[in-house]
Amino acid sequence: MFIGSSNPLGASIDPTELSFTSLQQVDRSAVSGSAVTSVDITGLDLEGDGGTYIIVGYMDNALAAGLDIYMYANGDTTGTNYYHQRFGADHNSLSGARGNSPVITGLETSLQTAFIIHLSKMASCKPLAFSTNAQPGAAMRGLCRWWNWETTSNITQLTFTGSSASGIDVGSFIEIWKVV
To answer: Phi-psi region for residue 15, left (φ > 0), alpha (ψ -120 to 50) or beta?
Structure first.
């Protein structure tokens, strides 16, 4: 990086023109005691908090079967009010799919996943999210997902729900950060 001086190609960076943003934690919810089906986060104000949340999470699968994790907004648990698209890759394959449900990530059998979600809503637009996650195992698998909710409402609550009861294990957590 060439700060304040030109590089051989003629490009330069003026440090007085750089602007930085920071993150401020809004919520942290962790699973303790016993496995749960859902993690609820209330007291949010996506529009009031600037229109962008960065959601960082780690989930451990308590089951001997895989499960999807759904992200519902404002108590709307009607799956057809959401859309998602997925692109996945592992050591030997690429795959993609589109669906009419609120899937934001998935958990393979008895494994864990770490994920980052960029959730945004601008003015009268529908809320949109982009998530990335990685899962360990014999073949490391990476997934990218796009999610949207078919309404223009402000998001004040998020619920992360497993597709099977008690699938989100102890030690799982979700943190929500606003961009300031």
So the answer is: alpha
The pLDDT of residue 170 is: 97
Residue among 9, 70, 84, 63 nearest 39 (CA)? 70
Q: Nearest CA to 113 among 172, 73, 165, 170?
A: 172
CA 21 to chain centre: 20
| CA distance linking residue 88 with residue 107, whole number of Å | 13
DSSP of 119-177, one letter per residue?
A: EE--TTSPPEEEEEEEE-SSS-EEEEEEEEESS-PPP--EEEEESSTT-B-TT-EEEEE
- Please tell me the predicted confidence (pLDDT) of residue 54: 95
pTM for the model stands at 0.85
State how far Cα 169 lies from the chain centre.
18
Let me know if 131 is exposed, middle or buried by CB neighbors in 10 A (0-12, 13-18, 19+): buried
Is residue 152 within 8 A of residue 125, CB to CB? The reply is: yes
Pairing state of beta strands 103-107 and 112-120? unpaired
| Look-up of token digits 């692109």 | 87
Mean pLDDT, 10 residues at a time, over the chain (180 residues)? 47 60 93 98 95 94 93 97 90 89 88 91 86 73 88 95 97 94
